Structure formats: structure tokens, C-alpha cells
Amino acid sequence: MTRGAGPLDRHREIFRAIIAIFYLVAGVIHCVYPAVFLPVMPSFVPYPHEVVIFTGICELLGAVSLYIPRLRWWAGVMLAAYAVCVYPANLQHAWNDIIADHDYAKLWYHVPRLPLQPVAVWWALYAGTVIDWPWRRTLKG
């Protein structure tokens, strides 16, 4: 964060740090333990093991790129696109756990996760300085 940064810059830096940590952790888990994610891959995805590793690498690169100023905007766009692209796997995961396995105890995980996916898209765009909404008018420094 730069000296004399306004409230919007400080706010965005906090959001950037949180999402970067999230994607760093998720990326490491995807790369180190890919087998955990294979049961939730939709059947139409070819080479599921490689796709899991690839998604982990994307998460790691996106998190790091949020801290490279000339790549920040692209990192925000690509992490937002990533959150949209993995939504079918999230739906498959919910289907497997709740409907197919009748494991209703996992509702605590899936019920908030599925509708919060658009928040993940927004968060990536905000952290990547693609958008200022909704704080542009209220947090100008």
C-alpha cells in the first residue's frame, strides 16, 4: 500500500490480501492433493486429474499476479472467469453430497457456497482493480 492512499485503496488492499490468501491455499491443495477433487469433477470434463492440477496452477498464478501491478487487472479478470468456470464442479459436488449420497449434513457447506459464487467473481474483479463498485462514491479518499 502506498503512503497517502485513500480509503478505497486501503479497503481494496485488504480485500486483495484475503482473496490472494484464499487462492494461494486453494492452489496448493489442488496441486498437492488433486485426488480429493476428482469425485466432484463433472463427467464431461476430459483429463480430470490434469484439469485439477491446472486449476491449482491458475489459482497460484492469479494470487501472485494480484500483487504485480501490471498484471493485477488481468489477474482480477482471470480469477473472476475462473470462478465462473468452476461453478459446474461446485454444482456437481453439491449434487453428489446432497442428492446422490443423501448427506444432508453437508448443506452447511453447499448452501452458502453456491449462491456466494457471484461474490467470488465480484471479489476478484474488485481486488484486481477492474471495478470499484459499490464503493467508488462512498470511499473516495
Task: Outline the structure in words.
This protein has one domain. It has 141 residues and is mainly α. Helices cover 68% and strands 0% of the residues.
What's this entry about, in short?
The protein has helices spanning 7-32, 48-65, 69-85, 87-100, 107-127.
Low-confidence stretches: none
Structural class: mainly alpha
Number of domains: 1
What percentage of residues falls in helices of 4 or more residues?
A: 55-70%
Number of helices: 5
Number of strands: 0
Mean pLDDT: 86
Biggest sheet overview: none
Radius of gyration: 17 Å
Q: How far is the first residue's CA from the last residue's CA?
A: 14 Å
Global shape? globular
| Beta-strand fraction estimate | under 5%
Order of helices and strands: HHHHH
Write the layout of secondary structure elements.
Elements: H1 7-32, H2 48-65, H3 69-85, H4 87-100, H5 107-127
Helix pairs in contact: 1-2, 1-5, 2-3, 3-5, 4-5
